[in-house]
Each structure stands twice: as C-alpha cells, then as structure tokens.
Amino acid sequence: MAIWAAVFSFLFVLTAKETKAIEADLSSHLVAITAGFSGDRILLFGSINSPGEVIVVVRGPDTDFKVQRKGQVAGIWMNTASMKFESVPSFYSIASTGPIEEISSSATRALNAIGFDNIGLELPVTKAAGKLADDWKDALLRNLLRSGNYQLENAEIVFLGEHLFRTEFELPANVPTGTYSVSVYHLRDGQIIDARTTPLTVSKIGVEAEIYDYAHLHSAMYGIIAIVVALVSGWIGHLIFRKG
Question: Rounded to 5 degrees, what are φ and ψ at 139?
Fold first, then answer.
C-alpha cells in the first residue's frame, strides 16, 4: 500500500501543473473472482489543482431486478405479487468529501445520476404510481442494501496534503461481474467543474469461470450433469452410512 501511495503521489504531482482540474486512477483495473474470493477493496488516488469538493461514484453494469411481495393465503405465507425493475445498477457506492446534499446542487446530482434518488429506480406509471411505486422501490433498495451491493454510507475521501486525495471502496463476496464505471467529480459552489471516468472490470477467472461459461452456453447439459452428480453423491453417501 505504501508503494502505491508513493507512486501515485509522484505521478499526480508531475501532472498538477497541467490545466486539468482533476486526475484520478485506480490501484488496479481488474478484480479477479476465484473460488476462494471473499470480497475486495478498490483503492483510488487522485489530485485536484484548485480548491473544491470531490465526489466519487462507482456504478456496476445495469441489470434487471425482480422484487417479490409475500402475503398470507389460507394461512400460508407465499409470493402474492412481483415487480420487475429494468436497467438498474447492479452495484452502487459513493465516496465524498462531505454530505452530497451540501456539496452539490440537486440539479447537478440529477444530471449525473449521483445518489439513490437519481439512478433510475423509478417505475413507469403504467406499472405502479404513488405510494405503491414508492413501496416497491423501498423494497428493492432494502434487498440491494442487504446484499452489500448498494452501500448507504458514503465512503470517506482523505486528502494527503493540499492536492492529493485517496479513498477505498468495499466489494462484497457476491459482487456482480461485468464492467464498472468509476466517476470522479471535482465540484465548486455545488457545480461540477471537471470529471474523470475510468473502467473497472470484475471477472471470474480459473475453473469457476469455465464452469460459469459452460453453464450459460450449455444450460441443458449442465443441468443434466448437476442432477447426475447429485444422484451419485447421494448414492455414495447412502453406501457409507449403511456400512457404518
């Protein structure tokens, strides 16, 4: 970690004389998910060449989410309704130098999809409206926060001197794969004066990646193999316990 700090500090000091208001980069642009993956931390370093505030947004690839609502039917709890949200970020986390409501205007946040209220969780009125839509949205947020893929508390941005800053993001063990965008905003008086976006790839590698690809490319055969393996394992277990 100390080596990375020295390297990034040197690079950003060299570029501080340039006209760009902000520079930023990641310690690594690849998160490799292996069989023993238990989560990871992403380190971001940056530099601003003038006073202001900084917001960093990490956004995962868009995907669809289905939310189920349970109810009692004849005394039995079961799924009684469902709602599908389309093109929702699979991961969302923010770091900032202060509360985003204080360091950025509402128009700025809306235009740049900063904050949970601006990332496309709204339902079309043809699906739900009013309090019903809010209830479905709250249920989706609860699920995503519980999974760790949405992080309610903003991560802290720490300044290392007058210009250099750093922050870290936590990726849970169940982090979705795909190409993420890491956007860094330099703000003054609530408005963005410069921004940088860099990609981050989260990918399965090794045997787990091969199994994952096979399961998606040959789903029928994968299902048959899974059933056969389960039956053989059960039969072997039965033989062992019968002998015991």
Answer: -65, -40
Give the residue extent of every domain in the chain: 2-204, 206-244
Among 51, 56, 30, residue whose Cα is nearest residue 204: 30
Partners of 178 in the β-ladder: 202
- Burial of 97-113, coded b for 16+ CB within 10 Å and e otherwise, reads beebeebbeeebbeebe
Distance of CA 19 to the CA centre of its chain: 31
% of the chain exceeding 70 in pLDDT = 74
Architecture of the structural domain at 2-204: Sandwich (2.60)
* CA torsion, ordered 121, 177, 148, 158, to nearest 10 deg: -100
Count of residues in the chain: 244
- Residue 190 to residue 110: CA distance in whole angstroms: 12
At residue 218, the pLDDT reads 45
Residue 162 CA to residue 159 CA, distance in Å, equals 7
Phi/psi at 208 (nearest 5 deg)? Answer: -60, -40
Across 122-234, the runs of DSSP E, i.e. the strands, are 155-156, 158-160, 164-171, 178-188, 191-204
Helix (H) or strand (E) holding 217: helix 207-217
Q: Would you tell me the crossing angle of helices 219-243 and 207-217 to the nearest 10 degrees?
A: 120
Residue 106, pLDDT score: 94
Of 10-24, 56-70, 88-102, 187-201, which range is least confident? 10-24
**Residue 167 to residue 204: CA distance in whole angstroms:** 25
Q: Give the three-class secondary structure for 41.
A: strand
Taking Cα atoms as reference points, which of 59, 139, 65 lies closest to residue 93? 59
